[in-house]
Amino acid sequence: MQKLNNKVMIITGGAQGMGEMQAKKAIEHGAKVVITDINEEKGNELAKTLGSNALFIKHDVTSEDDWHNVIETVLAKWNKIDVLVNNAGMTYNKPLESLTLDDYMKIVNINQVSVFLGIKSVAKVMKEQQNGAIINISSIDGLVGGAIGYTDTKFAVRGMTKAAAHELSPYNIRVNSVHPGVINTPMIQQKDVKEAVDEFAKQIPMRRIAEVEEVSNMVCFLASDEASYSTGSEFVIDGGITAI
Is Oxidoreductase a UniProt keyword of this protein (predicted)? Predict the structure, then answer.
């Protein structure tokens, strides 16, 4: 069953990694997908692969002007916005003492400010429609401690989700956060990382890390009408690690 049939869905950071799989799954479920990313080459390539129901827009998620352009472009093409997935994110593998203020603010702007801008940008459209779903990709580091900067922003995304859900619920707009654990992406298959990840996986109750499809399946569920009574909630995909 195509649970997202004819829904128009914006996915930030959609050119690769989790965002790419979210776009592919959404297309499979019948959505019209707008992939936004700073990586123009990969974004255009993915949109071409996905066909006529996919559109790529180059997008700096920290720019309010870029957000305005995304909204105007999507409305001009498809005349509505049903779903926003705030997926774009980043971090630095640095200890606290080595993290500069510029480093820290880049994490804040991409992981946190972009989510605020995204919610703000689609709110007017979704209010007029009296319908919409916003999905904010946080992390298990938005529930428990992790790297400085990354954890701070992922906790903020969790709180922003609840605040926005409270304000937008009267307009039939649902806002939820997704909290993945360790995900099997090309980044963690690198030799210098894989051994540490394999060791960490032994501590996970399910004894494995997540596949990107498992996160994308949750995103598609929350984007669909099947999740019609879920808002302001955290959806955790971590194999049980935060239950320990």
Answer: yes
DSSP code of 80?
-
> Of the residues 92, 104, 150, 171, which is catalytic?
150
Distance CA 6, CA 45 (A): 22
Contact 131, 172 (CB under 8 A): yes
pLDDT digits over 99-147, tens only? 999 999 999 999 999 999 999 999 999 999 999 999 999 999 999 999 9
Model confidence over 216-236: pLDDT tens digits? 999 999 999 999 999 999 999
CA of residue 15 relative to chain centroid, distance: 12
Is there a catalytic annotation at residue 150?
yes
Is residue 88 classed as helix, strand or coil in its secondary structure? Answer: coil
**143/145 Cα distance (integer angstroms):** 7
How many whole angstroms separate alpha carbon 202 and alpha carbon 136?
Answer: 28
The residue written with tokens 């690198």 in the block is 190
d(CA 56, CA 36): 6
Continuous H helices in 2-85: 17-28, 40-50, 64-78
| C-alpha–C-alpha distance, residues 66 and 116, integer Å | 14
DSSP 124: H
Return the closest-CA partner of residue 85 out of 152, 180, 8, 166.
8
The pTM score is 0.96
